[in-house]
Design goal:
3-stranded mixed β-sheet, alpha/beta
Length: 253
């Protein structure tokens, strides 16, 4: 059963304001919703990840009968927390990432949760003599990889030249440049030669490239309403800084 994994991920809902969209008058409005987790928030990914698992009852009725009148891959009789949040924000139900589609299909967000997913990788359980029943179990790192792939699809030219948004520029060898034994400034770490291509400086804090892109979005992009750049007539030093330091249209999607 997809919901039986002992160390399953607690459903995590991330509300992400699509900064590239024009700022709205109501600051409480969100234009996209992304979700990571396990069967508590899976809206259909399990069926696409494990299409041959005919034993899982969530892929057929009576699951889904209360609201959808059909099975949707949700591990419940109806809507999940993430569904109610989407409705409250007047967003469509979050589309499961593994259902495929183009950038337009995920314009309002995506759901990366998979039933049975774990926070830690299958390799961790293997190394600690507690192998998972299914070696193909999805972990949070995998869901984050999917998220990164989707960012490339949604924002092909709007990542401010950042090629590695989640990898530490200053860190150790290995996944994302972070480990328990070393990191930026201690242990056997190294600093990459092209920091402008990295979104993370040390695995915990953004790089200067990210901060610059955010500042650009605040000062001349669409992060504020009205645009700060349109109110600089009485502030010549700000106008000079914008012209000399920040490139137009270079801010995070």
């Amino acid at each position: 059963m997809a919901s039986s994994t002992s160390m399953s991920v607690v459903a995590v809902v991330l509300l992400v304001l699509a900064a590239a969209q024009p700022a709205r008058a109501d600051p409480a409005c969100y234009s996209r919703l992304f979700n990571f987790g396990d069967s508590l928030s899976d809206t259909g990914n399990y069926h696409f990840v494990f299409p041959n698992d005919t034993r899982e009852p969530a892929v057929r009725l009576p699951y889904g009968e209360t609201f959808f009148n059909r099975s949707t891959g949700r591990f419940s009789n109806g809507r999940l927390i993430v569904d109610f949040i989407a409705e409250a924000l007047e967003l469509p139900f979050v589309r499961p990432y593994q259902s495929g589609g183009s950038a337009e299909n995920f314009a309002r967000g995506a759901n990366f949760a998979v039933g049975g997913a774990t926070a830690l990788s299958p390799e961790f359980f293997e190394e600690n003599d507690a192998p998972l029943p299914n070696p193909d179990t999805v972990c949070l790192d995998k869901e984050l990889d999917w998220f990164r792939d989707l960012l490339k699809l949604l924002c092909p030219n709007d990542l401010a030249g950042i090629k590695y948004p989640l990898v530490a520029c200053c860190g150790v060898e290995g996944f994302y440049g972070v480990s328990e034994t070393g990191g930026c400034g201690y242990g056997e770490y190294k600093v990459r030669d092209d920091p402008e291509k990295y979104g993370s400086w040390d695995g915990f804090h953004p790089s200067e490239a990210v901060y610059k892109a955010i500042a650009n979005g605040l000062l001349r992009g669409s992060y504020t309403q009205p645009l700060i750049a349109t109110t600089t007539n009485s502030c010549p030093q700000l106008t000079e800084f914008l012209d000399s330091q920040l490139e137009p249209n270079v801010y995070l999607c």
